[in-house]
Write a structure and sequence with these properties.
This protein has 17 helices and no strands. With about 375 residues, the protein is mainly α. Helix 15 crosses helix 16.
Length: about 375
């Protein structure tokens, strides 16, 4: 089958100059393939240069915005000092530092939950820090529910901002508190808690009068009188009356309602609930602290940072914000010795020990 002239030229072109013979061997192929290659390279360089330009533009705009914002804040502070306090409060509340800390905490909680699901672990089997992180995050999530409900209606964001400014302790979680607010709010919460301490000791002394056995009754009455007099009880005194808190009127399920309400305030639980719910929540929180104590004992007090040490004491009834590290260490060590000696049925003694061991801790022991 004969080939056309164009097809023959295409075949000879592919074979190279040697196939063209001596007369056409000098033909040089036209640089047809060079132009598309240069176009490809240029098309790849253009996006890179445009990306670099856009990044530089964004960085310049951000730097300009920071300079303008700094000048604006200086102007507010100089001309309108009262408004500047309000403005700085809002910016500190909505700062990216708190949001970033909350985001990292959510990721850590997800990691813990995934490991629990994969290894089929219970909360009581977790290490101390993971168990404490889950407990604190659950409390923060419950605290954030009211502000989330308020923000649901349209245009309610302005109301939320105003409420956050006037009630930061009640509505904001700890990630959005300033360091000064953290100390201030911890003192406020502890003052509310300490208001219920005398009522707990008085209710315990009244309940001791109804005990049938004379010797344990005298020991408990002596313990209550000692605490009411300003002295600190010894660990041996608490262990000597442990049997009274497991099968007598002093068990949590048989305490008077006012007594249970006072103990609920010690654990930062709302006392405005039915008696059944009050007793159930109180028992569950006491057992949770007991599991934390055993996990902390496995970890060792020496592994705790100063912040973790103070937080552990504060959770168990002691205001550690104004105490030294040695004082917090000694108190928490005594608490762990008591908690790890008690059984789950003796949770009532553990709840009362939050008051008995903390009420006069700033005073010398007798």
């Amino acid at each position: 089958m004969a080939l056309s002239r164009a097809a023959a030229r295409g075949v000879l072109w592919r074979l190279g100059p040697a196939a063209l013979g001596p007369r056409r061997g000098r033909m040089e192929p036209l640089p047809v393939l060079e132009a598309p290659r240069c176009q490809v390279f240029r098309s790849q360089e253009r996006p890179l240069s445009s990306r670099a330009t856009s990044r530089a533009l964004v960085a310049a705009v951000a730097a300009m915005a920071r300079r303008v914002n700094a000048r604006y804040e200086r102007y507010l502070e100089r001309s309108f000092p009262r408004f500047y306090v309000l403005y700085s409060t809002f910016t500190s509340v909505l700062c990216p530092t708190g949001i970033q800390a909350l985001f990292l905490e959510v990721k850590e909680i997800g990691r813990i939950r995934f490991r629990m699901s994969r290894q089929r672990l219970k909360v009581q089997q977790l290490p101390y820090r993971d168990m404490e992180r889950l407990r604190q995050f659950r409390r923060d999530a419950l605290k954030a529910i009211p502000i989330g409900i308020i923000a649901i209606p349209p245009f309610a964001n302005f109301l939320v901002i105003v409420l956050m400014y006037f009630f930061p302790r009640q509505l904001l979680i700890r990630y959005f508190w300033t360091p000064q607010q953290q100390l201030e709010f911890l003192d406020v919460y502890d003052s509310i808690r300490r208001d219920s301490y005398p009522g707990v000791v008085q209710s315990l002394a009244l309940a001791a009068q109804s005990l049938p056995e004379p010797r344990p009754r005298e020991l408990l009455q002596q313990l209550c009188s000692q605490v009411q007099g300003g002295a600190r009880p010894r660990l041996a005194q608490l262990l000597a009356v442990r049997s009274l808190f497991s099968g007598s009127p002093l068990v949590l399920n048989r305490l008077q309602v006012d007594h249970v309400r006072a103990l609920s305030q010690v654990l930062f639980l709302t006392p405005h609930l039915p008696a059944v719910l009050l007793r159930h929540r109180l028992l569950s929180h006491i057992l949770e602290i007991r599991h934390l104590d055993r996990a902390l004992l496995r970890l060792g007090l020496g592994q705790l940072s100063e912040e973790e040490l103070r937080a552990a004491c504060y959770l168990r009834g002691l205001n550690s914000t104004h105490l030294g590290r040695a004082e917090c260490w000694a108190w928490l060590e005594q608490w762990l010795q008591l908690s790890c000696e008690l059984q789950a049925s003796e949770a009532s003694l553990l709840a009362h020990s939050m008051v008995l061991l903390s009420l006069n801790y700033s005073r010398p022991s007798e």
